[in-house]
Amino acid sequence: MNITSAIMASVGVILYLGEMITNAIPVYNPTVTISVGYGFAIVLLLLSLLEFCIAVSLAHFGCQATCRSDAQPTMVFMPYQVIGGGEVAAEPNPLPPPPTYDNVITKSQ
After folding, report:
1. Which of 17, 51, 53, 67 minimizes the number of CB atoms within 10 Å of its CB?
2. Domain assignment present for 103
3. What pTM value is reported for the model?
4. Would you say residue 47 lies in a domain?
5. Which residues have C-beta within 8 Å of that of residue 2, sequence separation ≥ 6?
6. Residue 26 lies in a domain
7. What is the pLDDT of residue 86?
């Protein structure tokens, strides 16, 4: 989907550039203001460029994450404790039980 989005964004960039070239504002007349349509084309061109950059980077990182050819073995981390120079595989002291609570409601004054 990211590759398709990048292709569509590049088509959009080409179309907006073509639209801006065909409807270019003459430079020789300083009193001519930029039309609203030309301004929209500039904003949409910038957004299409942003979409293209994001789609290409996401496609690259997605391909790196899923298309890796070197299958590295999964590392399993087993925590252990060192007590007095010896290893203990599991925690020797279980956690104490949680404190008991009373169903007493107190009013603060």
Report:
1. 67
2. no
3. 0.55
4. yes
5. 55, 56, 58, 59, 62
6. yes
7. 58
The band of 72, judged by pLDDT with boundaries at 50, 70 and 90, is low
* Structure-token pair, residue 57: 């980077």
The half-sphere exposure of 58 on its side-chain side, counting CA atoms within 13 A, is: 12
Task: Give the chain's domain count.
Answer: 1
Is pLDDT above 70 for 81? no
Phi-psi region of 88 (alpha: psi -120 to 50; beta: other; left: phi over 0): beta
Give how far Cα 5 sits from Cα of 14, 58, 60, 64, 91, Å: 14, 10, 13, 18, 51
Both tokens assigned to 54 = 């994001």
Task: Establish if 62 belongs to a structural domain.
Answer: yes
**Cα–Cα distance, 16 to 47 (Å, whole number):** 11
Please, which pLDDT band fits residue 47 given cuts at 50, 70 and 90?
Answer: very high
Q: Residue 69's pLDDT is what?
A: 60
Determine the structural domain holding residue 61 and report its residue range: 3-71
- Identity at 98, one-letter amino acid code: P
Give the alpha-carbon dihedral of 45, 48, 50, 55, to 10 degrees: -160
